[in-house]
Amino acid sequence: MRVLLLGNGGREHALGWKLAQSNKLDLLVSAPGNPGLIELGPVLQNLDLSNTTAVATAAETYRADLVIVGPEAPLAAGVADEVSNRGIAVCGPVAAAAQLEASKSYAKQIMTQAGVATAAARTFLDPDAAEAHLAKAEGPFVVKADGLAAGKGVLVTDNRETAIRWARFCLEGRIGEAGKKIVVEGYLEGPELSVIALCDGTRAIPFPVARDYKRVSDGDQGPNTGGMGCYSPVDIPNKLVDNVMEEIIKPVLSTLAQEGIPYRGFLYAGIVLTDQGPQVLEFNCRLGDPETQVVLPRLDEDLLDILGAAATGCLPDKPLRITDKAVVNVVLAASGYPDKARTGDAITGIDKALADQHVLVFQAGTAESLNENGLITAGGRVLNVVGTGPDLATARATAYRAADKIDFYGKHYRSDIADAPLTPSP
Ligand code: GLY
C-alpha cells in the first residue's frame, strides 16, 4: 500500500515509525514532514495542508491508497472531504465531524444531545455579556476560545479579573477568529486521562489510555502547552474504559450519525475522573500529541491494517492487541517555549540516546542544518524522548537517562513525568 501521511510533529514521526513496520507498506510519503520522517520516505516539505485541493492532488500524484491526517487544522479545513471525493481512502473525519474539536460550542451541543457528562457551559459573542456572567460565576473559571487556537485558547484561573480580561481579549479578536466566540464552563476537578478511540463510521475501538502533562513546569505549574510528556499504561479499571466507550464515545458517534455525519478516524476524549464519574473536558478529532508517542509502541497490531480498516468502514469487531510494556515520553522543549521558542540551535546526542535499545526518539521541532551536518531546533517542542520497559519506573528511568544525553541551547523539560502515576480507585 502507498500512504500519504500529513503532519510534521512527534505524533506523525511516531505514526511513520509504526507504519514502516508493516510489510504491506510499499511507500510512505509525508507532508510537510520532519527530518525523522525523511528517513522513512519522500517528504513534500512545501505542501500546504490547508489547501485541500493541493493535498488531494498530491494524494493522486503519488497514487496513495490511504491518506492519514495527523493534525486537526487540515481536517477542519476539509482535507478528508476532498480526498474522499477523489475516491481515495482517508483516516480522519470530514470537516463537519471535525467541528467536535474546531468548535467548543458545537461539541457542547452534541454532548447535550447525546446525554454525555460534561461541565455546564455558556457561549458568548459579546464581551459585556461574558463579563456579567463571569462577575457572578463561581471559580475556578474556565474560558475557552471556541475555535482552533493551536493549544493557546484555554484559560483556567482562580482569579475573576484575569478570567474577565481573557474573555474580553478573545472576544475583541486579539487571538484571531478562533476567539471571537468563547465558551465559559464549569471547572472539572480530578485527574485527567486521554482516551482515544479509532472509529469507522459505525464502530469504535479504544486505543491504550495515556496520561498527558499539559503545564510547562513540574508540579503542574506555569502556562499550558501542547503537552510536555505522558505515559501509558494508566492504572485504571478496564471497566472505566468500557464506560467511556459506552457512555461517551458511542453516544457521540450515534448522535453525529443521526445528523448525517459519519465519523471515521480518531476521536480523542479528554476525560476528567470527577467524584461524579468520568466527564468530558474536550474532544479532539485526531490522535493526541504527545500521547501517540507512548500509545503506538504498546500496540501489537499492523497499524496500516487497522487505519485502512477504519478508513473503509470495516474495523474488526474485537479489541486491539496491546502489550504489557510501559512507555514514558519526556518532551524536550526549546528555550522560550511555550511563548516564542528560540530556533536554530544545534542538537547533539540523539545517537547516544538511541544506543539504548529501549529508547525511541521522535522528532518534532527539528530541521536539518543548512550549514553543517546535523539537526537544529525549529519549533517549541523539539524532541520526544521515549523510554520503554517492563514497568513504568523502569521506562521512566530509561527516558530520563536518554533525555540527559541530548543537548541543545536552552533545553528544558519536566522532571516529574510518570513520577506519581494514578493509583487505582478502590
Ligand atoms: N496532548 C493533547 C493534545 O494532543 O491535544
Task: Please supply descriptive tags for the structure shown above.
Dna Ligase, domain 1, about 425 residues, Rossmann fold, alpha+beta, 4-stranded parallel beta sheet, binds glycine, about 25% strand, D-amino Acid Aminotransferase, Chain A, domain 1
Radius of gyration: 21 Å
Bound molecules: glycine
| Range of helix content | 25-40%
Largest sheet: 5 strands, antiparallel
The coarse silhouette is globular
The CATH C-level class name of the largest domain: Alpha Beta
Strand content: 25-35%
Notes on the structure:
The structure is a single chain. By secondary structure, the protein is an alpha+beta fold. The protein folds into four domains: 2-94, Rossmann fold (3-Layer(aba) Sandwich); 121-185, ATP-grasp fold, A domain (Dna Ligase, domain 1, 2-Layer Sandwich), CATH 3.30.1490; 189-311, 2-Layer Sandwich (D-amino Acid Aminotransferase, Chain A, domain 1); 326-405, Glycinamide Ribonucleotide Synthetase, Chain A, domain 4 (Alpha-Beta Complex). Helix content is 31%, strand content 26%. It contains 14 helices and 22 strands. The chain has helices spanning 10-19, 35-38, 52-61, 72-77, 79-85, 95-102, 104-114, 127-136, 160-171, 238-258, 292-295, 303-311, 350-354, 392-405, and strands spanning 2-7, 27-32, 66-69, 89-91, 121-124, 141-145, 154-157, 182-185, 192-200, 204-206, 211-212, 215-217, 221-224, 229-232, 264-274, 277-284, 326-333, 346-347, 359-363, 366-368, 375-377, 381-389. The chain has a five-stranded antiparallel β-sheet. Helix 3 packs across helix 5 (79-85), helix 6 packs across helix 7 and helix 7 (104-114) crosses helix 10. The longest helix is centred in the middle third of the chain and has 21 residues, at 238-258. The site of glycine has 6 residues, from loops. Glycine (GLY) is lined by residues 212, 227, 284, 288-289, 291.
